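Ticket #4471: structure output looks truncated?

Reporter: J.K.
Steps to reproduce: submitted the chain below (671 residues) through the standard prediction queue, then opened the result file.
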Amino acid sequence: MSRRFTPHLTYGLRFHILPDADAHKRVSEVIAFCKRFRIEEVHLFVYPEEWNRGHVTEAELAEYCRMMRKEVARMKSAGLKVGCNPWSTTLHTGRGRRLRDGQNFETIVSPSGVKDPVCASMACPEWRRFIAREYAELARIGFDVLWLEDDWRYHNHDPLDWGGGFEDGFLRMFSDAVGRKVAREELRENILKPGEPHPWRGVWLDLWKRQNEASAAAIRDAVAKANPAARLGLMSSGAEVHSAEGRDWPGLFNAMAIQGETVHRPHYTSYGEVPGTCLARSAAMLDLQKTLRPEGLRSYPELENFPFGQFSKSFALTFAQMAVAQIYGSDGILLDLHPMTGNGVGEEPGIGEMLLQSRPGLELLGGLFPASMKSRGVGIPFNPQAALRMRTSAGRSMDELYPRVMPTADMLGRLGISFQMRRSEVANALWGNMPWAFRDAEIEDMLRGGLWLDAESASILSERGFAEHIGIRDPHWFERRDSQYSMEATASRKCGIRKGLRLGYNLFPRVLRMQPATAGEEWTTLMDCFGERLGAASVAFHNRLGGRVFTQAAPLSLCGGSYGLSFQRRAMARQAARFLAGSRAPVMADGGAHLLVMDMSDGAARRVAVMNMIPDPADATLIIPKGLKPAMWRLITPLAKPVSARPLSGKRACAAPWKLPYLATAVAELA
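Returned output as attached by the reporter:
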């Protein structure tokens, strides 16, 4: 029998109402719209993008506050929860904006010394007082939550060449910390110095962290004093980039917390229409951010759409992205569906109807996958402090500090292998530059279980002295210009493919030349265009620590698109997962290409969602561990009512009873 569950879905409409003569009418329209289409929350912008003049003046803020004091009470009386979303804290980008009269803020400076004309520095005391006053004034209106926008960051402030945080105020603080005056050029050079990270990098990242948290705490104190019932919410972007800013996730959330509570708004979707295969990355982003935030913190993922409407993103993809948010246990979904230009809420056709039609399927998913459930599958370890240990090669860009973790999830998702964005006790995939993020003891502990390596991670572990534990010898790089490598050929039936099958390898800019160690099993062979063996392309190995390691000669983290996914490569990936995890192999999918598997459990219940990420209908079949079987299947198709069915019997007992359409999800409840 299937377990009981409570349907769950909360829509939060992000909307802009201008403080003009039409404001009262616009609010009436929003209230009616929310009532008709069952929207529970509204989050109001303050001078969003097209109306944004830069940092607001006192007069501009007063204009919004006068309107909101009248209208927010009306919205709350109508049963809506109401949040406030100032469009800028430090400010996203210039676009011709400049500081206004009386705004004597220090603006950010890039690592190369480019000065931004308007985006503020988090180390500027005057800006910090200004932003705290702004949020306090808004808090007095009675909002339930006030959001810090995604400009709460050091990176991605156009037109700078990376971002800010190298302005004079920061440089003075850093000079005080190290006991001598330091110039920007010297600091940048040492932060990015190739090889062993320079001690200054840690000092710098800690300085950024402390200024970030101090600014958040200043806003928190001002809001809590003005309205103790209000909460602060944080918008976040890529966790890899935030690592390069020294972000301490629990520390930042704690700095924002009012009476121990705050809210999270994770970014996870595309702005416009993209292939459904991008949903694997969306799932990984939600899972990773869920791992990073404190337990129990409310999450309202942001459903992006820009420049808005069906001409930017189809309703079908919108539904699928909301479905992923529900599967990862979201408390609500914040909807960017309307332009910010101040139009009426009903002027974008079909949005309300789409939300209403989506509700049954999304409510079902929300009930089946509560926030207490955690992902299961191949572990993809992540360390938010990875930038402290990352090795650079060129030493020219802050981008070199990013830990590359999303490509691993993207590929496993496309191959139909369930994954979790945290370390697993059973089997982990550690690709690209990620080995730098962990200490020797942590690496050795992973080597005692199952560990999946690509060319770059294998090279790093060899450099760090772990060669004897990964099953390869004499690793060095074949550069594309110097070698005619072109194929991998199956050398052993253990890889799950017939022996002698050849698969393309020649699109990689470089590959790892490696030989299997004495006890290593060569699953596939690296060949040149003459059919000559150049080394091993993949090796399976049992090490003396009791672990199992699978190593590939391809740099998958940097060049996954060059790998040429196929049913044969999916078969080999499954065999690798089985080899690494043994009897505790992850749930996997068959019956079509690009089937995303999301395996969730809270100890009491276990449910697996499989989503079809391409337009071809799929005969979705789950490959599940022994001892488990589906007790119930449910089909959730975009904008349609869900349907249920009992499991099929016979050889395909794990098969979904329907053809799985594009962007549809089949959910199996396992017993």
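Triage note (M.O.): checked the attachment and the full token line is present. The chain has a mean pLDDT of 96.
Status: closed, working as intended.
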